[in-house]
Amino acid sequence: MPATTYSEAIFVNRTSALLVATVLGAGLTLSACSSSSDSGSGDGSSGSAEASGAGKIGVILPDTKSSVRWESKDRPALEAAFKEAGVEYTIQNAEGSADTMTTIADGMIADGVTVLAIVNLDSDSGAAIQQKAASQGVKTIDYDRLTLGGSADVYISFDNTVVGELQGQGLVDCLGGRPAANVVFLNGSPTDNNATLFSSGAHSVIDGTPGITIVGEQAVPDWDNDEAVTIFEQMYTAADGRIDGVYAANDGLAGSVISILEKNQRAGQVPVTGQDATVEGLQNILAGTQCMSVYKSATEEAGALAEAAIALANGQEPETNNTSRDDQGGRDVPSVLLTPKSITKENMNVVFDDGGQSKEEVCAGQFAAMCTEAGV
């Protein structure tokens, strides 16, 4: 796989970057600190531009609502990667507001960041941020979500079409070869290009499976889990309850689906997909109310971002392993596309072994016996 080749190349790049930092930082003592506020915004720093040779790197996360991953996994993984490389950085969270993200970006640019990475809330606002950054000589990175019509120098993510394919195959497998099955799609936000790719990948598997009929499909604005409850309940009512499987784009939406299935005494009878391998998602898999999730290592993705950011700050071309098509911008964006993993009860230890979640947290309380039974 290209990801293996990429990892080998990254080892060489990381060694070179750290060697540069050591030479340029001779005689300087690097210190590291980080801070965060209750709102989820915050920043951290390690060393100095003179010590690292990489200037200052800014990262803007999108929110705390669409997924718990941004603050619980991505932020600490990014902090660890930047500290390891000895570069100065700031990480803040837009809290779901495109205006806030623009304000944060303006502040970071004014504060002298040399590389700015964003997880856009929508492509239009993301592209505007990148255009302004470029006009100020700041390199930009799309992190996790591709900004359509944007100008990012590189895109760091998982292969999101493959994510959808894994979800689609997971649902087909969980349906167990039923001769006939009604399926509905509960997609992510219509402003998130990843949600489009997830759905496309899932459709490529499910649409060609004999016996499966898609009886409903809705997108959930802003990945809002509360709104997803209402949307799925309406879909369930419209189908008169005749739903045999649900494609839910992530674990948060899966939880919303499961709440309605529980209300109708059908939780555990209707397979539901997910994504992100969250604590709740893994516990739902153990309980049998969710049939699978998709794991995307935050450590791996954050490490790839740190490598690309350091390369750009040092005037180098980042090591990539693919390109991603931006039809709106009419270009192929140099990309690092990592490999996601399908997670079921049988291979849940993959997440624990990588440090993606704590076994103690997932297997707490009523789930302890379930973990033991599953061999976790």
TrEMBL record:
<dbReference type="Pfam" id="PF13407">
    <property type="entry name" value="Peripla_BP_4"/>
</dbReference>
<feature type="region of interest" description="Disordered">
    <location>
        <begin position="314"/>
        <end position="334"/>
    </location>
</feature>
<dbReference type="InterPro" id="IPR028082">
    <property type="entry name" value="Peripla_BP_I"/>
</dbReference>
<keyword id="KW-0732">Signal</keyword>
<dbReference type="GO" id="GO:0030246">
    <property type="term" value="F:carbohydrate binding"/>
</dbReference>
<protein>
    <submittedName>
        <fullName>Sugar ABC transporter substrate-binding protein</fullName>
    </submittedName>
</protein>
<dbReference type="InterPro" id="IPR050555">
    <property type="entry name" value="Bact_Solute-Bind_Prot2"/>
</dbReference>
<feature type="region of interest" description="Disordered">
    <location>
        <begin position="34"/>
        <end position="53"/>
    </location>
</feature>
<dbReference type="InterPro" id="IPR025997">
    <property type="entry name" value="SBP_2_dom"/>
</dbReference>
<dbReference type="GO" id="GO:0030288">
    <property type="term" value="C:outer membrane-bounded periplasmic space"/>
</dbReference>
<feature type="domain" description="Periplasmic binding protein">
    <location>
        <begin position="57"/>
        <end position="317"/>
    </location>
</feature>
